[in-house]
Amino acid sequence: MALRFTTRASDSGWVDTVWTCASGPVTEMTSVATACWGLVFWQYDGRPYASVSGPETGAGVAPVPAGAAFVGIEFAVGTSLRVLPAPALVDRGATLPDVTRRTFRLAGDRWETPGPDDAEALVERLVRAGAVVRDPFVAELRRGHRPYASPRTVERRFRAATGLTQGAVRQIERARQAAALLAAGVAVAEAVTRLGYVDEPHLARALRRYVGRTAGQLRAGGGRPIALDLGQRTTS
Question: For the residues 90-97, what does the mean pLDDT come to?
């Protein structure tokens, strides 16, 4: 396989998912929209690298170094780096400096580079140090609680914390769910019904915008490598 993704859920309220990826003989992939920001660590040609990835509002094409091994932490919506808030990262990222095989520098301090099994331990240290923060207002919204505030205030607070509107987050998350269903063999009509799309053209537009795939490609596994765990087990 050109890209081999494995994704697991997290029991940390600060983390959405943790993923690993190994790249084969490939030079580019389809990047997929995401409402999360993240930390990405990889080894390529014997050298270590690290970066902060931002929320992505649409699908695109991204370069991939062949033969690289990645570990990524996707943070929960509503969290952010104190020195680099999520709105500043939308549709962009930042390369971290002074990376060694075992450590990286972030927010003025040096941290131990995590593996896939100790990502939450790193996040806990970042939270304790105040390097990663969370807006409790958004956390309550994500749990389904309705705050005593006007809709305008809710939207303003949400966008200030995430860089995205609530509607954009819902659309991105729904399109990713649709991609997973279709890749698992679920019929297009059933995916439309399950996820509340108006009709099949509505789903098709969402897939093109946020996933960069058609329903047929997802069901058949066609197209260039994609930055999404499709057709593989999601572990917990």
Answer: 94
Tokens of 11: 């029991």
Cβ atoms of 128 and 107 within 8 Å: the answer is no
Q: Phi and psi dihedrals of 123, rounded to 5?
A: -60, -40
Which residues on adjacent β-strands are paired with residue 63?
Answer: 28
- The 8-class DSSP code of residue 30 comes to E
| Phi then psi dihedrals of residue 58, to 5 deg | -165, 170
Task: State how far the Cα of 194 lies from the Cα of 183, in Å rounded to an integer.
Answer: 15
Helix (H, G, I), strand (E, B) or coil at 10: coil
Pick from 122, 115, 230, 138: which is nearest to 177 by CA? Answer: 230
pTM of the model: 0.92
Q: Which of 32, 3, 2, 30 is nearest to 17 (CA)?
A: 32
Residues 6+ apart with CB under 8 A from 221: 183, 230, 231
152-203, pLDDT tens digit by residue? 999 999 999 999 999 999 999 999 999 999 999 999 999 999 999 999 999 9
Q: What is the DSSP string of 17-48?
A: EEEEEEE-S-SEEEE--BS--EEEEEEETTEE
Number of Cα atoms under 13 Å in the Cβ half of residue 28: 7
Q: Tokens at residue 75, please? A: 């943070």
Neighbours of 72 (CB within 10 A): 22
- Give dist(CA 47, CA 104) in Å, integer: 13
Report the first-to-last Cα separation within the chain, whole angstroms. Answer: 23
Q: Are strands 234-235 and 3-9 parallel, antiparallel or unpaired?
A: parallel
Q: Look at phi and psi of residue 78 and say left if phi exceeds 0, alpha if psi is from -120 to 50, else beta.
A: left
